[in-house]
Specification:
Layout: E1 12-15, E2 18-21, E3 24-30, H1 31-34, H2 41-45, E4 52-59, E5 70-77, E6 81-82, E7 85-86, E8 93-94, E9 101-107, E10 110-115, E11 121-126, E12 131-134, E13 139-144, E14 150-157, E15 162-163, H3 165-170, E16 176-179, E17 182-185
Antiparallel strand pairs: 1-2, 3-4, 4-5, 5-14, 6-7, 8-15, 9-12, 9-14, 10-11, 10-13, 16-17
The structure holds fructose -6-phosphate and manganese (II) ion.
């Protein structure tokens, strides 16, 4: 990939909705992987658990846990709902609680749901060009509220780590549902 001399080709590329290049790590979450986060289990039981709910392509230029480094990822959430709840990411606090993160919208329409340590919940609209600073000690999750894939980028510290257990056990204090055709925190 590298050209002659000092000016080189970059090692990573955006191709449409994906990240490609050296050592990009892909991961896929099927509906079955995340079904526990949805409230309407009865509707869920009739759905195809093998379908992709979202996928992430990440670049980890330094080992996980390295202080001062950065990671990058592109998340693509499929359109869909379980009952009146939109397809969404599992959501997490960072294990290293002081670490922040940037998210930014690339394609589609979404909502970033945030929750602080006092379980206060708020949310921000995501769309191409929206930029979101997620402070430390704030859990974050994204829902696709549109009819096309929602694509967003993320950049986070390499020593952030992920605490999924707490959200898996206690959820967010509010759910984002479609109420009268509109995304609503309830
Ligand atoms: C990294 C980060 C994102 C998410 C991705 C999938 O700290 O916040 O790259 O990891 O959007 O969401 P989760 O990890 O909640 O399944
Ligand atoms: Mn994060």
């Amino acid at each position: 990939m590298n050209g002659n001399g000092l000016i080189r080709m970059p090692e990573l590329f955006f191709t449409g909705q994906n990240l490609e290049g050296n050592e990009v790590v892909p991961s896929v979450r099927t509906l079955g992987d995340i079904i526990g986060i949805f409230e309407d289990r009865e509707t869920a039981s009739g759905m195809d658990m093998a379908q992709t709910a979202y996928s992430v392509s990440s670049a980890f230029p330094v080992p996980e846990g390295t202080p001062g480094g950065l990671f990058f990822g592109i998340t693509r959430i499929m359109p869909g709902k379980v009952g009146n709840e939109y397809f969404m990411t599992k959501g997490h606090f960072h294990r290293n609680e002081d670490t922040a993160e940037f998210y930014w919208g690339v394609e589609g329409e979404g909502v970033l749901i945030l929750m602080d340590r006092n379980r206060n919940v708020w949310a921000e609209r995501m769309f191409p060009g929206s930029l979101h600073y997620i402070p430390g000690k704030v859990a974050h999750r994204v829902a696709n509220i549109g009819v096309t894939p929602l694509v967003f980028d993320a950049c986070w510290p390499s020593d952030a780590g992920h605490n999924y257990e707490e959200i898996a056990a206690g959820g967010f204090a509010m759910r984002l549902k479609e109420v009268n055709g509109l995304p609503t925190l309830v």
